[in-house]
Amino acid sequence: MFAYAPAPESRSIVDLAPSYGLFIDGRFTDAHDSFKTVNPASEEVLAEVAAAGPEDVDRAVAAARRAFEPWSALPGAERAKYLFRIARIIQERARELAVLESLDNGKPIKESRDVDLPLVAAHFFYYAGWADKLAYAGFGADPRPLGVAAQVIPWNFPLLMLAWKIAPALAAGNTVVLKPAETTPLSALFFADICRQADLPPGVVNIITGAGDTGRLLVEHPDVNKVAFTGSTEVGRAIARSVAGTGKRVTLELGGKAANIVFDDAAIDQAVEGIVNGIFFNQGHVCCAGSRLLVQESAYDQVLDSLKRRMATLRVGDPLDKNTDIGAINSAAQLARIRELSEIGAAEGAERWSPPCELPAQGFWFAPTIFTGVTQAHRIAREEIFGPVLSVLTFRTPDEAVEKANNTPYGLSAGIWSEKGSLILAVADKLRAGVVWANTFNKFDPTSPFGGYKESGYGREGGRHGLEAYLA
Ligand code: NAD
Ligand code: MG
Fold it and tell me: For 266-283, b where at least 16 C-beta lie within 10 A, e where not — what string?
């Protein structure tokens, strides 16, 4: 492989303040406590961020409550104007937001710039279009908003998960209090500024920062009507318990352990691109990542040879470099978890392989890794690693592929690679997964519902279905 000269995107477009408060009732306000957010590629502190305590959460929920009546009383076409305005400002500020997201999260700029930001704007445009058509969404002639939505999101797609949560909630006439993840709070705080720029009425969107405790206070607050959570299955379970019997509506989008199934008649080069995209996109910090590769035995050698060749060309390093394929692991804690599960994989007898690759000395890094000789009993075949680690299993027949693919407590997504349409349809029909991709992987669109079976959670986000979670 020839060497690439460094091509770093300038970070001067992002104007970071030394500290940020909570965005409540249209204004930034102080909190009692604070924490630091770092750039995971360098461990440099980016800013000090407020940590919301009980009174702060009360204030935020109260602001959303006050804003609810006037906001929900607006004609849908008026709410749509705000959402269109927000979408356009996101487009105008896309480069700034992409650089910010890569700084705070560690994801490669080519992904934040070409995937995250376009999808964020698209979600606001899409749901803006629904705001005056709710009566035609299939949920009755006069669907009503629920009230105040408490929304808690993870760190893997900070701004995109915010868009998935806020756009449908506002389109349907709800007001929101959103808490971003503690390692990636900055893009949500910049979004707060966009709400001001768009003249959104105060209190319609409130952004409170903090760790898990703040999230718990928010979802347990007695005056919220709806809880929307994306994150770990463990926290999802705790939330489901805490809202049980309260009358709050809940949607949970949790983990996954998706099978990416490659049949021997597949276009192998394309399948290999799909395997790489499936597990190494966003450092594998993707709930629908194709983390279990199921390869038909007759194609095994060919697929593995091409996959290893392709992996040797992946560039790991500076997230702001436009040539980088794999950026930094989001946090020291996540890196420790990836290392631990990888060590367990090797100890349980799977064979570990990574291409030669030099990792930066500072920051949190993990080389793209595959494990072969994995069986269904291995923990790395069962547990979500949430990192750039692929477990490879084999199968002989379509039935065996389906059985292995479904042998998981999760059910968020799956991929099928074959030239034969009838085989794809027959297999897709039997997979217990919310999204099944055929001859592609990790494709997202605001018009398309996304969500899981079993321990991957319940409810759908995106599309017409995504409105249902915010309407009564
Ligand atoms: P997490 O579930 O702890 O965090 C997700 C969000 O929930 C964060 O904003 C966090 O502050 C908040 N939170 C934590 N505890 C809470 C509580 N009791 N009540 C309300 N909110 C709470 O996830 P994590 O610790 O960052 O990651 C752990 C694992 O979760 C990962 O290794 C991965 O397997 C999985 N994960 C999945 C997704 C996904 O998209 N489905 C996203 C992130 C992490
Ligand atoms: Mg950070």
Answer: bebeebbbbbbbbbbbbb
